[in-house]
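Notebook B, p. 112. Complex prediction, attempt 2.
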Amino acid sequence: MSPTTHGDTSKPAAKAFVDDDLRYGFASSARSFIDRVRTGDLGSLPVVAGLLIIWAIFQVLNPNFLSSQNLVNLTVQSAAVGTIAIGIVLVLLIGEIDLSVGSVSGLASAILAVLFVQTGWHIAIVLVVALAAGAAVGLLYGLLYTRFGVPSFVITLAGLLGFLGLQLWVLGRAGSINIPDQTWIVEFLTQFFLPAWVSYLFIGISVAAYAWQLLAQARRRTEAGLTSMATTVIAVRVGGLALVLGVAAWYLNLSRGVSVSFLIFLVLVTVMNFVLSRTKWGRAVYAVGGSVEAARRAGIRVNRIYISVFMLCSTFAAMGGILAAARLQAANQSSGGGDTNLNAIAAAVIGGTSLFGGRGSAFSALLGVLVVMSISNGLAILNLDSSIRFMITGAVLVLAVIIDSLSRRSRAAAGRA
Amino acid sequence: MTLSTAAKSAHTPERILSLRGIGKRFGAVRALTNVDMDVYAGEVVAIVGDNGAGKSTLVKILAGVHPQDGGTISFYGEEQSLANPTDARDLGIATVFQDLALSDSLDVVSNLWLGRELTRGGVLDEVEMEQRSWSLLRELSARVPSVRTPVASLSGGQRQTVAIARSLIGEPSVVILDEPTAALGIAQTAEVLNLIERLRERGLGVILISHNLADVLAVADRIVVLRLGRNNGDFRVVDVTSEQVIAAITGATDHGATKRAAEKSAAHPEAETER
């Protein structure tokens, strides 16, 4: 909708505010997309382009990179860090940061291993305890932040060290605990892949749900006299989704297929995306990230939003730790250490979630983690040292932050916040 | 939320808000002393005064930002206490502060409904909110390009419009506008003044705080002058000139209020304005 169509006061009844044609089709969709990109509202465009470039480069360097086997490995490797990155997306949306997600995930790994292997508790109780530990960490951060106003940067930096210490203490003398690979959770999360027909069934259900939701929305909007998506646009979107998911599943199914852990990650991303975009809580998260004062004056209980977001972030970190422990079949002193922290944060930022708060979506965790893990995986199969891997990941992170800053500046110049 | 229901009871307007003897201290500073004010339905009351006259303090008391130390606030004849902003809002007093407090990254609909979104089965009801946003903006004849553009892309006047429209979402009886035209150009100011008139036509009581006497004389029905935290005149716009108002603002004239002030605090030399 162009600004030139704005209301004419002499025609109060007419829908002078909106385009004459209430259904927007291809032309206007494409036009508004180009408009958005030009004014710096890049969305997920840079990350998709970046992912394609990275894949092309690695495929040239090593023809095995894009093989079905390797892409299956990539999805399996992505699940844990990706789950942690969902939490990072949430804290970034409210304009804060959590630097301790690596330690918290390591703590959850340690709790899982110790309680399950050494104490012999039932797995369900162990999982609940590990997740609750994550939530408790987040609650602590949230209370420290809202009660004392300590910057989240400092609180979570302290947490990074403190919870690493707790992890070591939980692990005790042994320092490393192996989880037997016959146990249910390890088998389920590492060795269980969806049978091909189940993966296609999942895709069918998801695509049908998406189509139904778009159609229902378009119908309601038309009934309400609002602009709505044309059926052709809906068909293209639904077809596009079906194509992307179908091709991805088909290609992964050429070897082992879609792993349960990656499916869990995808479901979590989809659920968080729904919660962020369609609930009052999600709207409040964006409002707090955009302007705390405006949110407070609008009657949003800002402190509750902060505490709930910190809690969710740490809980996602714990969940990632559980996935990682199951994949590696062990918890040790380096669980959640090394580059876990930075990979998760880099994934969220590279995926397109702004460091400045109020912008981003849960899907940036998915796109970002694919980029980060592609680099890591690609360099690994090239037999390059982790020194090179760290440097390249660092460079990509800086690039992503630069894109974020530049697009923010050009949005401001174009008056789009 | 329709214009047609606006009570055109010009002859016997209902008194919505009535302040009696309002006082407020900040430590040793007496920000307000014994201030009286009434607001009737379908009336624009302008509060004017020099810097430090107590306008903002009065607004903040009405908005529930901080409670008064003395005096009473009656709403439709019933005494009320405004302990916090939610009290004021629930009572039906909506305030548009000077900085507007809009969330730049959210679109117009999200801003209008922020904090009181409509839901359908626990999920945001975007269709209903967008539809009602359009009809509200249309009633106000507001010129906003699209309700789905981020607020950051709007002009100053449009942002003011959105902020005023947002205050109407809760169906208030009184709307307080704090310096709504301060940062606006000439055309945009005219637009906002039209908007204020439309609020009056809806039967709302409007309290307008402004430094700009031209705007006040153009749109207000009544002018309440504050000087040094006290009432210093209450004029009907039809029988006053801008010189008289300026005189009351600066204290260069004698009114009942200044006389009383002079009697009460004879020690203050600046209150001796007897001619």
